[in-house]
Amino acid sequence: MTKTRQIKLGAFLMTDGHHIAGWRHPRAPANANVRVDHFLRLARLAEAAKLDAIFLSDSLGVRDTNLESVHRTSRNVGFEPLTLLSALSVVTHNIGLIGTASTSFNEPFHIARKFASLDLLSGGRAGWNLVTSSGEEEARNFNLDRHIPHADRYDRAREFLDVVKGLWNTWEDDAFIRDKVSGTFFDPEKLHVLNHRGRHFKVKGPLNVARSPQGHPVVVQAGASEDGRDLAGASAEAIFCAHRTLNEARAFYADIKTRAANAGRNPDHVKIMPGVSPVIGRTEAEAREKFEELQSLIHPAVGLQLLSTVMGVGDLSGYDIDGPLPDLPETNGPKSRQQLVLDAARRDKLTIRQLYLSIAGARGHWQVVGTAEQIADALEERFVKEGADGFNIMAPHLPGGLEDFIEGVVPILRKRGLFRTEYAGTTLRENLGLPFPEHHATHRQAEAAE
Amino acid sequence: MTKTRQIKLGAFLMTDGHHIAGWRHPRAPANANVRVDHFLRLARLAEAAKLDAIFLSDSLGVRDTNLESVHRTSRNVGFEPLTLLSALSVVTHNIGLIGTASTSFNEPFHIARKFASLDLLSGGRAGWNLVTSSGEEEARNFNLDRHIPHADRYDRAREFLDVVKGLWNTWEDDAFIRDKVSGTFFDPEKLHVLNHRGRHFKVKGPLNVARSPQGHPVVVQAGASEDGRDLAGASAEAIFCAHRTLNEARAFYADIKTRAANAGRNPDHVKIMPGVSPVIGRTEAEAREKFEELQSLIHPAVGLQLLSTVMGVGDLSGYDIDGPLPDLPETNGPKSRQQLVLDAARRDKLTIRQLYLSIAGARGHWQVVGTAEQIADALEERFVKEGADGFNIMAPHLPGGLEDFIEGVVPILRKRGLFRTEYAGTTLRENLGLPFPEHHATHRQAEAAE
C-alpha cells in the first residue's frame, strides 16, 4: 500500500434508508420522500465529513406492482435524481454529486446535456452512473409492452456512452473567448460537431453546454454481468458494485483492473467502490440488537416482494415462506446480483424467510454489523487486500445510520491514515484521484507538437 | 377592472439578456452562461420585487448552424432549464419557477416526473412551458434527419399533455399515511394507475413522485398558431405570447378567453402574459440613446441570422442588406411569429437591415423604450384594455435591465395599485390566482356526495 492510496467514500442516499423497513425506524423521518431539507441535511453531513460523493440510484417508475407489499414501503416514490442533485449543488461546495440515469429509456443528447449542466452548476462535481434498465414496469412507461433483452440493452448502452462522451467534447476548454470589444464570443475552430450515425442513434450535435472545471462528469457504472464488466473495464471511472465476501470482492477487483489495463487504461483510473451497509453499536451485542430491531419491522409481504425483485422473478407468495427457495427459471433481470443471492441461498441452505431477511438490509450488498472499530477493521482489510478502492455507504436508516458511520467509523479510518482530513480539490475528479479528460482536439495538438 | 385584478409579472431570464448583442453591454457579465451565481442573483432580485415567476426558454441544441454569426453570440450555450431551476428552487422561497420543455423530443414520463420533482423541491412553485420543437437542428440531435410537420407536432403535444396530467394524478393528495406503527406507507385505494394507450404513447404509470402543495405544476404555453391556440384555450393556465401592437394583443386575448370559455373553463384561469422588452431612461431621449447603443453592437452577420431564425428561413446573406425583404416560401417554423414579422416588414416598408434591427431587441416581442413612467403607462393601458393579464419581462441585458425595471417601473405599478406589495402565498398557483387542481378521484367523490 503506497502512502497516497486512501479509501474513497460515497454516501448512497436512499431516501429514508437502505433497509427495506428503514422508514419505520424511530430515527428516520417518514416523509423523507417529499422533504428536500432531509436531503440538504444529508449532503451537508457527508460534506462536513469530507466524503467523496453522494450517490443517488434511480428507477423509471414504481417497479413493484404488488399492492399488498408496495403500500408498506417508502422507496417507490421520491425525488428525481437530476433535479435533486441540482438543488443540492448550490448548497454544497466540495462533495461529488453522482446520479443514476438509464441508457434504456433516455436519449443521449438529454443525458449529456443535463449532466453537463449539473457539472457546471456544481463547479465540476457531477458523476453519471450509467445503468441499463431491467424492469418490465419501467419499459411500460416508455411505449413498450416488454423489456428489451439484456445483450441489446448493453449494445445500446455502449453506443449511448460513445455519443454522450462525444457531445461532452463539443467545446474545447478554452473555446469561449467572450471578447466584448470585437464581439467574438467563441473561437469557431474550437467547436467540434459530433455527427454521430450509429446502429441505435443519429446525433449531430453540437452540445449546447460548455465543459466544466473537471472537463466532463465522472462516468460511473454499476453493472457486474459479463457485458457490464466489459463496458466498465473500457470506460468506467468508478464502479459501484455488490460483493458480500472478500473473495468475491477481490476476484471482481482483479478482473476489472485487468480489463482496464487490457483496454489500454491506467487501472488506477477506475475506482472500485462496493456498497456496504453498516449497523453500528457501542458493543457487538448492541449492534446485533439494533439490526434485529430493523429486521423485525419487515412485513412478510414486503420481504417476499423484495426477494422477487432482487431475483428478477414473479410472485413468490405461493411458496412456503419457511421452506427452501424453489428452482427458478432464468430471467431478463440483472444477472450478477441474482446469482449472488442464489449462491448464498444454496450454500447456507436458507429458507425463503431467511433469504429475504439476509438481503433486506442491503439488497444483496455487504452487510456489516458490529462496533465502529470492527467495521473499520473490515473496511481496511477489504481495501488493503485489494477488494475495493473505497466504499459506497448504504446506511440502513437516514440520517441516523449515516451519522453513526461518520461519528464512529470515519474518525478511526482517519486516525489510521486511511481517509482524508481535507478535500484534495473542489472537483469530483480531484477528490477521487481521476485524471482531467483532455479534449480530443487538445490531445491531437499535443501529439502533433511532439 | 375589479379591485383584485392586478398585473402578473414574470422575469424571462435569457442568460445575459434578450437583446441579441446584450452580452456585449458593459453591465452584462460575458460569462453568464457558465455562472450559476449570475442566475442566483437574478432569481433573488426578482423575488425581492415580488414578481410572480422567473421563466426560462429552451433549445434542444445549437439552432444556428451559421458559424459566421453563431460565434458572435452568447445564447446558444448555457445551462439546461430543469437543472438550473432545481438549483434555484432551494435558494428562493416564493417566486415561481417556469421552465420550457419540448413535447417533440421528450417522453411524457420524464417530463411529468422531472417537473413534479421540481414542484416538490420548490414547495409548489413549478410551471411547465409546453412547446413543440420547430428547429431542424434539434431534430438532428434526436435520430431524425428532418423535422416532423407542424400539425403532427401538435397532435403529439395534445396527447403528451394528457399523459403528463394523467401521471400527475397518480397519487391523491392524502394518499401518503406513513404510519410507522402499522407499517402502512400509503393507502392503496389512493394510488391510480394511468394505463394510457394512445396514438403516440403507451404509458402505464404510476408516477413515482407525490403531488406537491399546489397539486401539480402550472401548465404554461407559448404557441400562437391555430393549433397552439386550440391547445392553449383547452389546457393552458398561463400563456406567454408575442404581440407588438395593442390591437394584436387585444384580439389574441379575446380569442383565447373565448376558447377557454368554449372549453368549459373559467377564462380567469388562463393568464395571458405577453413578452415585453423595456429599455428605460431618465428621459425618453436617454432611453433612445441606450437602445441605440445596444443596436450598434449588432454585427450584420448576427442580425441576418436572427432574421432567418425568427422567419424560419435559410440563409439571407445573398440579398442586399439595405434592400427590401424578398418573397419567401412557406416554412415548417413557428407560424405566428413569422407572420407578425412579415406584416411589420410590408406595412413599414423596412429594409432587411431595418427589419433585423426591429426584432433584435426582443425577437418579435413588444419593445418599449422610454421613461419608467411611460413604460408603466404602456403596460397599464395594455392591461386595462384587456390585451394582457400580465407581462413577461424580457430585459435587454441582465442583470442591469431587470434592475432598471424593478427599480423604475415596479414601484410605479405598485403605487397605482396594479402590482402586489406582498406575495399572496407560497405556491405559484396562489400567486397567479389559479385554482388548485383537484385530484380527479376527489372530484368524483365530491360529485357522488352531492
Can you offer a commentary on this structure?
Two copies of one chain form a homodimer. With 450 residues, chain A is α/β, with parallel strands linked by helices. Chain A has a single domain, classed as TIM Barrel (Alpha-Beta Barrel), CATH 3.20.20.30. Helices cover 40% and strands 13% of the residues of chain A. Chain A has helices at 36-48, 67-70, 81-89, 108-121, 136-139, 150-168, 226-235, 246-262, 284-295, 300-311, 335-348, 352-360, 372-384, 400-415, 428-432, 440-449; strands at residues 8-12, 53-56, 96-102, 126-131, 176-179, 184-186, 196-197, 202-203, 218-221, 238-241, 271-280, 366-370, 390-393. In chain A, the strands form three sheets. Chain A has an eight-stranded parallel beta barrel, surrounded by eight helices. In chain A, strands 5-6 form a two-stranded antiparallel ribbon. In chain A, strand 10 (238-241), helix 8 and strand 11 form a beta-alpha-beta unit. In chain A, helix 4 (108-121) packs across helix 6 (150-168), helix 7 (226-235) crosses helix 8 and helix 10 crosses helix 12 (352-360). The first copy, chain A, is globular. The interface between A and B is large, with 76 and 76 residues.
- Counting helices, strands and paired strands, the structural category of chain A is alpha/beta
How are the strands of the biggest sheet of chain A laid out side by side?
A: 1-2-3-4-9-10-11-13
Largest interface: A-B, 76 and 76 residues
Number of helices of chain A: 16
Largest sheet of chain A: 8 strands, parallel, barrel
Q: What is the level 1 CATH name of chain A?
A: Alpha Beta
Percent range for helical residues of chain A? 40-55%
Arithmetic mean of pLDDT of chain A = 92
SS elements, strand count of chain A: 13
